[in-house]
Specification:
single chain; Glutaredoxin
């Protein structure tokens, strides 16, 4: 009798397992069937299109198929875990160069691409400046007469008593002329406090190149960034947290906050 019961139990478990195991298989079969119904492309053609896409991507970076496959292998490994997603294939291959000659070749290739890109950015900036002057010949975005350049340093010194360890949290976006003017005046006093932490609220993760382009067009010295006198940051919610804490919600950009130790103090833009 115990043996019969044991056999019956095993049979019930086996049937139940088979039913459960069949459910995802049925779902997968339905999904595959739907995909095959919606697409008449044969598997071989899809594979060919994928290969052509990879070749096209490699050519965009000036790499051959072997180099591209090595990049793909590296980015799927530890390099993809340690570095941001925006790291270029050339940088990945250069970092993992197998000898000095290969490292030098990738370094030169990257330097030429960056120079070409900078020239394109500057050319567009000049075209934008020309277009703005042509379209808005009398439209001054900033009334410079409000600020007395001769006495601005003295006025700022009188209104704000800086301490050497102070840092300024500066919230802006990439298309804010008023912010640019305030930042320029603030940078002129950079020797009076520890530094400026810039947060661009319209830049998302994965768009770090936009921050670099923005900083370059505003003539932010890379040396300041290297020395942490100025930091370039994606907002990632920092503006909401800080503005809620300081009562600056809804305030137009730029928003400035002085950080002195753990204390955050709002700084009126009118002081600059």
């Amino acid at each position: 009798m115990p043996n019969k019961c044991s056999v019956r139990q095993r049979y019930s478990l086996l049937v139940g397992y088979c039913v459960l195991a069949a459910l995802p298989a049925i779902a997968d079969t339905r999904q595959i069937s739907d995909q095959q119904t919606s697409s008449s492309q044969p598997i071989g053609q899809s594979a060919t299109e994928l290969l052509n896409h990879q070749k096209s991507r490699a050519a965009q970076w000036g790499l051959d198929e072997v180099e591209w496959q090595r990049y793909r292998s590296l980015i799927r490994g530890i390099r993809g875990s340690l570095s941001p997603a925006t790291l270029s294939p050339i940088e990945v291959l250069g970092i993992h160069a197998r000898n000095a000659e290969e490292r030098q070749r990738y370094a030169e290739q990257w330097a030429m691409m960056m120079r070409d890109d900078a020239e394109r950015i500057l050319a567009f900036q000049r075209a934008y400046d020309d277009a703005h002057r042509r379209l808005f010949p009398n439209g001054l975005l900033i009334d410079t007469s409000v600020v007395s350049s001769a006495s601005s340093n003295q006025v700022l010194a009188e209104k704000i008593a800086w301490q050497p360890t102070d840092r300024v949290l500066f919230f802006t976006d990439t298309q804010c002329p008023t912010c640019d003017a305030v930042l320029e005046r603030l940078v002129s006093h950079l020797d009076q406090f520890a530094g400026i932490d810039l947060y661009l609220i319209d830049v998302s993760a994965g768009e770090e190149s936009r921050i670099r382009d923005w900083a370059s067009s505003r003539q932010i010295d890379p040396r300041w960034v290297g020395e942490h006198k100025i930091t370039l940051n994606i907002d990632a919610g920092a503006f909401d947290r800080v503005s809620t804490h300081t009562g600056q919600q809804g305030q137009e950009l730029p928003v400035l906050v002085r950080r002195r130790g753990d204390r955050l103090t709002p700084l009126p833009v009118s002081r600059f």
